[in-house]
UniProtKB/TrEMBL annotation:
Pfam families: Aminotran_1_2. The chain crosses the membrane at residues 60-81. Belongs to the class-II pyridoxal-phosphate-dependent aminotransferase family. Its main location: endoplasmic reticulum. GO terms for molecular function: pyridoxal phosphate binding; serine C-palmitoyltransferase activity. Residues 1-22 are annotated as: Disordered. The keyword Coiled coil does not apply. Keywords: Acyltransferase, Endoplasmic reticulum, Lipid metabolism, Membrane, Pyridoxal phosphate, Sphingolipid metabolism, Transferase, Transmembrane, Transmembrane helix. Residues 162-522 form the Aminotransferase class I/classII large domain. The keyword Acyltransferase applies. It is found in: Endoplasmic reticulum membrane. This is serine C-palmitoyltransferase. It comes from Anas platyrhynchos platyrhynchos. The gene is SPTLC3. Its cofactor is pyridoxal 5'-phosphate.
Amino acid sequence: MANPSAVCNGHLHHHHHQKQNNVLKSGVCKKNGITKGMKKNGVSNGTLYKKTFIEHFEQAPMYVAVLTFVGFGVGTIFGYLRDFMRAWGLEKRNIAEEREQQKDFVPLYQDFENFYTRNLYMRIRDNWNRPICSVPGPQFDLMERVTDDYNWTFRFTGRTIKNVINMGSYNYLGFAETEPNALKTVTKELQKYGTGICSTRQEMGTLDKHVELEKLVAKFLGVDDAMVFGMGFATNSMNIPALVGKGCLILSDELNHTSLVLGARLSGATIRIFKHNNMQSLEKLLRDAIIYGQPRSRRAWRKIIILVEGIYSMEGSIVRLPEIVSLKKKYKAYLYLDEAHSIGAVGATGRGVVEYFGMSPDDVDVLMGTFTKSFGAAGGYIAGKKDLVDFLRTHSHSAVYATSMCPPVAEQIIRAMKCLMGLDGTTQGLQRVRQLGKNTRYFRRRLHEMGFIIYGNDDSPVVPLLLYMPGKIGAFARRMLEKNIGVVVVGFPATPITESRARFCVSAAHTREMLDTVLNALDELGDFLQLKYSRYSKSSHPELYEETRFELED
């Protein structure tokens, strides 16, 4: 087993740097690049999975991988050439550099680490950080900007690009809206409480709105109690250190979000990584942890906690919760489930992956989620047993040091959650959940039919479309914007170097006409840029099905 610190430094710092491990020996049948929940240890998984579990992770043709590396190679060569020209004054240096008086200091701006940013990212930088000037609903308005120096700086033209179809925001249920009747209660709370609290929860920052929201969250999730926080990222990074520390073991999925990674590192606990959604890998780590205990001393671990997400936001995959819960119970470990992308987005009534798999919330020790996506607001929650929540009220860094959630935001969450629960006297919330499911399955099915390689679960509203080659990242995003469609494109180092992608987020607010407009544009662009790589080939990681040992690289 690799040194835990080496594992942490070598792998855990990546947000989504490893390819999805799409093939699991336990609980999966593999055919044509598709994983399907079937059997576990030769026994039908009917007792674990109450519905068909299908995920797609198809391998691109070999020539695509070769051309992708060639593209990065050519970009790197020209990067070194341009650095040479900058060093000799033949090209203007726009990047931050050390002042002449500090040349003998330890460098503040690491030159080589900045190589990728200044020579590769800068060439396609215009596809990120585009400023919008409207609510991020199914459509938005975009401030037009141009560059006169190859993306080093931008200037605004004063023109607004109207009614751009929004395929990038996490507005899964369409609650990011400005309809006056919908926001009536939010406006009322804004007038009553103002915008800020100016205090922490443990001092003068707990309002009746917070108490109301926490009771509603607990009721929505079917648990004893809940605590809310003003920032979704900090809900993970500031609460994990309160739950585990030195002498504890964290088993973390290799594709976990940076907030989970940071929280794990800050805790001081030993961190070990298991292959994404791979139950063999997880069970191997659990078994070794029980048998061998802590390094050197061989004492038993104080706690073992498994960190996973409900929906993985770069792969579109859904956690194999039934199998993880089974392993957790078998080895007496704790389970921390991050439902940032899954709460509201999956499940018959929007209650996340626990409901999606027909399981009890009592099967998960720590339920975490955010209000920044499906609820169109900000902040996050931790929910579970009353003892857990009471402990966090005292020991959470967010509770002690962070400013409380502002009241209008709390009211927005209450309004959206009551709508989902039907407490507003309508069935609009349930209709939104069902519409999101319909839109998701329609969008994914059409992309498959067109011949694109897309990743993830059939029910996941996060839809990654593989672009692969670095030159196609910029071309794809720019041409989609020309067609009045806003997309998110992602490349290395946020993804593996050979797996650049466009990530679509489907919303219940998207009409069929909007989706058809996007699909028609994708069909045309897929032919123009030659992006239709799908051959229903085998997974690129078939060997993982046959692995009996799981050694983690340094």
